[in-house]
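Researcher: Let's continue the batch. This sequence belongs to NADP-dependent oxidoreductase, and it's 334 residues. Same format as the previous ones, please.
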Amino acid sequence: TQSILLKQRPEKTPQNSDFEFKEEEVSTPKSNEVLLKSIYISVDPYLRGRMRDVESYIEPFQLNEPITSAIIAKVEKSEHENFKEGDYVLGHLAWKEYQVAKGENLRKVDPKQANLSAYLGILGMTGLTAYFGLTEIGAPKEGETVLVSGAAGAVGSTVGQIAKIYGCKTIGIAGSDEKIDLIKGKFNYDEGINYKTTDNMKEAISKAATNGIDVYYDNVGGEILDATLQNINRNGRVINCGAISQYNKDETATGPRVEGILIKKSVKMQGFTLQNDFGEKFNEGTKKLAQWLQEGKLNYEETIREGFEKVPQAFIDLFSGENKGKMVVKVAEE
Ligand code: NDP
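Model: Same format as before. Here are the structure tokens for NADP-dependent oxidoreductase:
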């Protein structure tokens, strides 16, 4: 079976040559273990941070060891009482075609309730990130204006729709005209700004946000954050969810660089990590997302690549915005 290791730490944008495929034997599960076949592998921007050898909220990946991420897998053999052959599970697992894992860290998922890949996106990490970041930190109120960057991505496409459910006006920022059409259509955004074809983001935001910005859900950081702060309203809230525009840089730009704005306008800016800050509330969040999905109030999009050999490239493509919605790789038939 194949496994994908981190061969060297990426410099700037990750390359295929930073990864290595290795052939290995599959072992047999011992007591309380299961043998798993990977079906869907999640690739996520935060994995870039783990490829650096620096202290963070999560351990760095080790060189010549497999990358790990959220994976939906099928149980092939079970020595654990909670699982039987044919069950589907979600786990934080290694980028391997087959692997033996401890049963205690796996959660069963039901393919009859939702598409299996949805447990990696709308009903998984990115959906929960959108939900808790927006509702608990952003605390949007009816009639307010919510701006979202990375608006056509997994988190951002969900944030906009939840803000609409809360009765807000929504403006999304994304990197192509096709994505702007998508967010205004499928994800219900009122306005869209293509940051790649806009010279002056401060003005573009000001034009789209006739009443200013009350809540900014930031997935990208950098200059778009600066431009937003220049349009933020009194008592505005800024949710620092991610800063993908900075992930491949050696030196992070310092910020916020707009002198005194947070002070003068009493703006609250807060970061979070899903697991650390909202880990206890996942059931509540998942229930809410599932309910909205069922009621037809939430749409979601996935970019599904096929083949285990495509996993590194799918990850790399996140940084050039090749994905719409959640990027996942289907590595075996269900
Ligand atoms: P996405 O599905 O949004 O994929 C990444 C997107 O980022 C791309 O499609 C691309 O879209 C955009 N992008 C890439 N480079 C840049 C750039 N230089 N400037 C602006 N946009 C860029 O990923 P996720 O939804 O999984 O994650 C979104 C953000 O949320 C990330 O920053 C991630 O790290 C963060 N996150 C944080 C969590 C937390 O607990 N705090 C948990 C999960 C995610 P485009 O074409 O528009 O450029």
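Researcher: Any comment?
Model: The domain at 125-276 is CATH 3.40.50.720 (Rossmann fold).
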